[in-house]
């Protein structure tokens, strides 16, 4: 085992969107175990856009602690037990990513027992989409579903999940023509509206001439505005993200205002609700069981962009925010 390890620290609060200079790759001795802790050699960790909020200082109503200059970043990670009360060599899921070696408490680790055919798939962000489609905006046979931010960690899975649950037509949004092609070619999206290629509302009207029945919104902003305008009577909206605010250089990640036509909400009887996994504790196990079955049957893909090595990790969040990932962004150590 190494005697030192590397980890990524926040250097300063970003002025606008984060850049690689806002982070540093530090080195220190491998931490010594305290009572009840497990020493884990990390193999993979997730880069998630919520870090933008945690480093921006606007963390009201956020269940995770803020990150201040000097703090080590954190997030979902997979690693191998090296020492401590858990079985050596066992793979576990925990929240101390962004470092070579982690020391979470044993009860903060979740052993990975083969529920999914590939351990890396435990970093997939499909639980929110599955929960939204089964608890808030229930997919019914024949529905037209619109997924905003379709090329992101949630969106790349959401379109596939909607189809597996019975949707007849799935439409997505993205900001890249190449990603739009991949969404249609690889993930079964029927149509994709392209941010920056004209008004989203006009594109969505063309892609869904008969309107939309469900919107799974990871973005907010103009895209949520357009979705409300395109909604059919009785449409169901589930809000699972707020990337329009988190990825805005004018904001700090803790707000995402949008213009919503409340008259249309009223006259069309549209239901709109935010999805929070804490409110649906039964979803995670149900999602994992179905996700595992779908993966083994070849019915679903887990798209992700690999970031190779801890030396590349300080650039990982800025690259994600700049739209240089397809699916989840995962650092491989």
UniProtKB/TrEMBL annotation:
Q: Identify the domain of life.
A: Bacteria
Q: Name one Pfam family in it.
A: ADH_zinc_N
Q: Which UniProt keywords apply?
A: Oxidoreductase
Q: Does the keyword Glycosyltransferase apply?
A: no
UniProt cross-references to InterPro entries, sorted A to Z: ADH-like_C, ADH_N_2, ER, GroES-like_sf, MDR_fam, NAD(P)-bd_dom_sf
Q: Does the keyword Ribosomal protein apply?
A: no
Q: Where is the Enoyl reductase (ER) domain?
A: 16-331
Q: Name it.
A: NADP-dependent oxidoreductase
């Amino acid at each position: 085992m190494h005697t030192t390890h590397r980890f990524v620290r926040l250097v300063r609060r970003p002025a606008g969107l984060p850049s690689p200079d806002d982070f540093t790759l530090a080195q220190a001795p491998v931490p010594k175990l305290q009572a009840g802790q497990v020493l884990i050699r990390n193999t993979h960790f997730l880069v998630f856009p919520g870090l933008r909020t945690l480093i921006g200082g606007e963390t009201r109503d956020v269940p995770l602690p803020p990150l201040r200059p000097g703090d080590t970043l954190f997030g979902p990670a997979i690693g191998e037990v090296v020492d401590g009360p858990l079985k050596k060599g066992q793979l576990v899921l925990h929240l101390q990513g962004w470092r070579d070696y982690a020391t979470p408490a044993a009860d903060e680790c979740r052993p990975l027992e083969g529920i999914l055919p590939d351990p890396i798939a435990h970093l997939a962000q499909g639980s929110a989409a599955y929960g939204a489609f089964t608890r808030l905006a229930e997919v019914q046979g024949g529905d037209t579903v619109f997924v905003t931010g379709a090329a992101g960690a949630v969106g790349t899975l959401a379109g596939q999940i909607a189809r597996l649950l019975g949707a007849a037509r799935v439409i997505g949004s993205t900001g890249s023509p190449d990603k739009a092609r991949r969404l249609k070619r690889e993930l079964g999206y029927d149509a994709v509206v392209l941010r920056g290629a004209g008004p989203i509302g006009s594109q969505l009207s063309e892609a869904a001439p008969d309107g939309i029945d469900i919107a799974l919104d990871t973005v907010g902003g103009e895209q949520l505005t357009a979705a409300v305008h395109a909604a059919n009577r009785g449409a169901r909206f589930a809000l699972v993200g707020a990337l329009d605010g988190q990825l805005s250089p004018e904001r700090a990640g803790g707000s995402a205002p949008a213009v919503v036509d409340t008259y249309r909400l009223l006259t069309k009887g549209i239901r709109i609700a935010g999805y929070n996994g804490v409110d649906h504790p039964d979803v995670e196990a149900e999602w994992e069981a179905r996700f595992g079955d779908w993966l083994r049957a070849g019915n679903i893909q887990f798209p992700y962009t690999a970031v190779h090595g801890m030396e590349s990790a300080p650039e990982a969040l800025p690259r994600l925010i700049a739209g240089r990932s397809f699916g989840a962004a995962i650092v491989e150590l």
